[in-house]
Amino acid sequence: MLTGFRTKALRPFSALSLLLALGACGLDGALGQNEGRVRLTLARDPGGAAANLSATDVAHVAHDDDDDGPPAWSFTSASVTLSSVMLRTLDGVLVPLDIALPVDVDVVRIEGGRQVQLPDGTLPVGEYDQVVLVMTAVRGTTNDGAAVTVEPPGGGWTAVVPICPLEVVEGGTANVAITLNVRRSFLRHGGWWSFQPRFASRLDCETN
């Protein structure tokens, strides 16, 4: 009789334990078949991306408002809202990265030399050679305390970033490192600001 009683008491506990175990597995972000993880990191570009600018694009943003004042591009805080990330396959098909978005990226932190790692995303197995970033909001505070909100163009800002061929394998994690030239992305034109994101691959494909 005691054995039967113990068996009846354990049955619901065992079922509950199994459900909790299955739930924990799901919370771990289990990958589906033919999928791999992609880990995207943003870092500072100290100057390389400036080559994408022509003289008419910049009303020189690295100037001082006066000889004794701080640089005109100085921000005490600035964030860029990233709303979409896509990668392009070698045959030219854009595939959305399955990632928790939107996310606000602290670009002052990047300018200070720190890296910002986005949440891990997933992609179908394959090779990719381009990252496409879509941003929909820019907000900041300048060094003199002025609040800055840059209105996006229709659909937001889109940055197309060629990368070294990236292989996504089933169950694996592929790392992508992209730089942002923060100073050259925030352009001052008289009393107003514009945002022209300057991203580049951190890796030189010719040497890797």
Number of domains: 2
- Quaternary state of this entry equals single chain
The helix/strand series, from N terminus to C terminus, equals HEEEEHEEEEEEHEEE
* Helical stretch tally: 3
Helical residue percent band? 10-25%
Number of strands: 13
Kindly provide the radius of gyration, computed on alpha-carbon positions and rounded to a whole number of angstroms.
23 Å
Structural class by secondary-structure content? alpha+beta
Shape, per Cα inertia axes? elongated
**Unreliable stretches:** 1-28, 48-72
Q: State the distance separating the first and last CA atoms.
A: 71 Å
* Mean pLDDT score: 79
Question: Sheet bearing the most strands, described?
Answer: 6 strands, antiparallel
What share of the residues does DSSP label as strand, in percent? 35-45%
Q: How does this model look, in words?
A:
With 208 residues, this protein is α+β, with helices and mostly antiparallel strands. The N terminus is likely disordered. A hairpin with a 4-residue loop joins strand 2 and strand 3. It is elongated. It has 2 domains: 30 residues, no CATH class; 174 residues, no CATH class. The protein is built from 3 helices and 13 strands. The strands form 3 sheets. Strands 2, 3, 4, 7, 8 and 9 form a 6-stranded antiparallel sheet that branches.
